[in-house]
Amino acid sequence: MLKLSRLTDYAAVVMAQIARYPEQAHAATELAEAVQLPHPTVSKTLKMLVRAGLLESRRGSLGGYRLARPATLITASDIIGAIEGPVAMTECSHADGDCDLVATCGVADNWQRVSLAIRTLLDSVTLAHLAQESPLKLPVQLPIQSVTLASRAEI
Amino acid sequence: MLKLSRLTDYAAVVMAQIARYPEQAHAATELAEAVQLPHPTVSKTLKMLVRAGLLESRRGSLGGYRLARPATLITASDIIGAIEGPVAMTECSHADGDCDLVATCGVADNWQRVSLAIRTLLDSVTLAHLAQESPLKLPVQLPIQSVTLASRAEI
DNA sequence: TCTATTGAGGACCATTTTAGTCCCCTATCG
DNA sequence: CGATAGGGGACTAAAATGGTCCTCAATAGA
Ligand code: SF4
Ligand code: SF4
């Protein structure tokens, strides 16, 4: 399905929630309630987001979480990367990807391009976009510039 | 990581292999050898691809697999869909998606759009593209048309 | 200073998904 | 007929995922 993990989804939801009131600090408990998710789980994702540098935290009373930078500078890639690691469709399309087949499978190169395209797409979607309530605005619109295949006939 | 399952990757590799010699039938054993993967595994993915209507099979001696339609008409989405089900980033972005949070999480709508964008992107990549040996051709190029945010300042 | 609050870190377990194997049946060709 | 393919599906092992919990550290304010 090429699906986000559930935690990643939670992360996005929580980030969006914070993004809607960027000024104030949000306690984990408060967020968990707002989003209707169990507190420990929310807490876990928050910690991950902090470690990835997307959130800043403050302990103690009056503490909580807030965005590390403006919502317009946080991308979907960032959020996904924070939870599941850098976006990459295949083993071979990220840094320490080591697939035995690189030599024989003729598709590595092209998958990497597709992967890159998706990454770019996700880079262009910011938290501000995601958090936006107003639904009907077609945030991301293709067309993707189509490909010119040299020898389509031959294949 | 937003990664393809390994089987999906295999499927792509195998499909590409077939696509390079579309005329002849390919036995599972032959393919397994060409791709350097265990036979049972390859066989499994082949069966899935048949069930999804991307390959046609013929039993008996001289049997084997061949493409059900030209490589230019088989998309990456098709292949992914055949193995892991339809492309959808979040629970809510495919048909029988039932997520309890739809009401409270303010991001469902926007994720669905992103999901759609990716699906469209993958629809535009054909097996012919993937199978192509020649590497350096930037098969898919963004730009994606960027978004106009109504009230960026306010967020 | 003391205490209540709130996050950090990490161990831990249950469940699900994924990957891979195997066996037995059916179709086709010669 | 018999040799060569694929079809279906059960089954297992291993890994990823989701979720919980407990203890420690920082901060604010009485
Ligand atoms: S594309 Fe080829 S090399 Fe890259 S991961 Fe898949 S099989 Fe390995
Ligand atoms: S986006 Fe909102 S509704 Fe869609 S799956 Fe994630 S949480 Fe559920």
Tell me what the structure shows.
Two copies of one chain form a homodimer. Chain A has 155 residues and is mainly α. Chain A has one domain (6-131): Orthogonal Bundle (Arc Repressor Mutant, subunit A), CATH 1.10.10. In chain A, 43% of the residues lie in helices and 5% in strands. Chain A is built from six helices and two strands; from the N terminus they run H-H-H-E-E-H-H-H. The first copy, chain A, has helices at 6-20, 28-35, 39-51, 76-84, 108-123, 127-131, and strands spanning 55-58, 64-67. A two-stranded antiparallel sheet of chain A has the order 1-2. In chain A, a hairpin with a 5-residue loop joins strand 1 and strand 2 (64-67). In chain A, helix 2 (28-35) crosses helix 3. The first copy, chain A, is elongated and about 60 Å long. The two termini of chain A are 28 Å apart. The model of chain A is unreliable at 136-155 (pLDDT under 50). At the A-B interface, helix 1, helix 4, helix 5 and helix 6 of A face helix 1, helix 4, helix 5 and helix 6 of B. One iron/sulfur cluster is lined by residues 90-92, 99, 101-102, 105, 107-108, 111 of chain A.
